[in-house]
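Sequence in, structure out. Go.
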Amino acid sequence: MEPQAYVTSAEDKGVATLTFFHPQHNAMPSDLLAKLRQAIVQAGQDPAVKVIVLCSAGERSFCAGASFEELVAIENKAQGEAFFNGFAQVINAMRLCPKFIIARIHGKAVGGGVGLAASADYALASQYASVKLSELSIGIGPFVVAPAIARKIGVSALGQMTLNAKTFYTAQWAKDKGLFAEVLPDAQALDDAIETLCHELKSYHPEAMAEMKRALWSGTEHWETLLAERAAISGGLVLNDFTKATLERFK
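Output:
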């Protein structure tokens, strides 16, 4: 029996660890996105939580992005817009969360997975965490995640990734561009670095961290509207014949 997808939340000594899993390389269907958004909101509201760690299960992929199975099943623009709005809502939940979110990027991140990494306040990665924005190659584009990614790596690097839609960029490239704060040699070193960072952050004043987070995200107040508009663009494009034919090949 194929393992079931899930989102879990566990709090320990002020650190909330949010873990998501999907058997298809940690792809993100709508229900998983909704659960992840809710877990982020709840952790942000929990007074016992000082810092949040976002991670995924498995050994190879951090997140494969959108669920191809769900994309293929989209029949109209409303369904498409609703699906991509799931990513928009997760990004906005991360942006508005009053706690710092540390991302553990242990493996490959594609499309929406890159968006999750970019929406974290601090991303630590293993050397195996290569990144790719494949959307243009299937007839859509990384519209929803682009603002978060551009905020970290700039429009030029975003354009480079978007146009080279079949290219995986190395974790070191992502660090050099500012997507990752650190690149560690293996999972153990990654976990050790996260533990050390969380230990330090827990000792800081919660209100000071909340105010600092608001300051760091200054200028993104319009993202509620912007990301919804971007979801509508993707929701329309996913219905084109090119995209449908391309996605069918991946089934």
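Check: The radius of gyration is 17 Å. The chain has one domain: 6-188+201-205+220-250.
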